[in-house]
User: What shape does this take?
Amino acid sequence: MSTDTAATNADTAIRPFHVSIAEEAVADLRRRIAAWRPPEREPVDDQSQGVQLATVRDLADYWVTDYDWRRCEAKLNALPQFITTIDGLDIHFIHVRSPHPGALPLIVTHGWPGSVIEQLKIIEPLTDPAGHGGSAPDAFDVVIPSLPGYGFSGKPAAVGWGPDRIARAWAMLMERGVRPGPAQLDRAGLPQPHPLRPRRTRRPLRRLGTAAGVLR
Assistant: This one.
């Protein structure tokens, strides 16, 4: 195998991923949060001047004393996670296949700021709607990537990773690691057919409608 071929294979490989944050890093974060210096209290009794000091104090206290990172880590590691390199950048993603045959692949993207953790609650209703008051034919295979610079994806070294480039990367991700014909979410959150494989949208629309009812 040539060096160029090996490099290409390495770039397109999908590698298993496991979250493992050193305890010292978690303890250091708690120390830094505990050592923060709060500003003066706002002179108003509403949020007209931004987030209120009391809210920030409560949040800081929660992170220092109550937040259980290991519990979150365990929830992530209970799911199939992977890393692949797209356009020179490592992309982390969760890929949960439905137990129901014929499930339609669906990619779900978090926003700015955000993380895949926000989407964990929708995985089971989408992959197993029959177990949540829905119907098995409405099942999806779910792919949830971390945006560039977020979570466990790589941090871009240069500008240019806007919505259009990320959309192209997600299309490549679906081509690389998922069965043909994925549904995608456009900027408005509406299901769209895969750009490289035209597909009628009635089925994804029906499935997403059913899933929305299950999630309510």
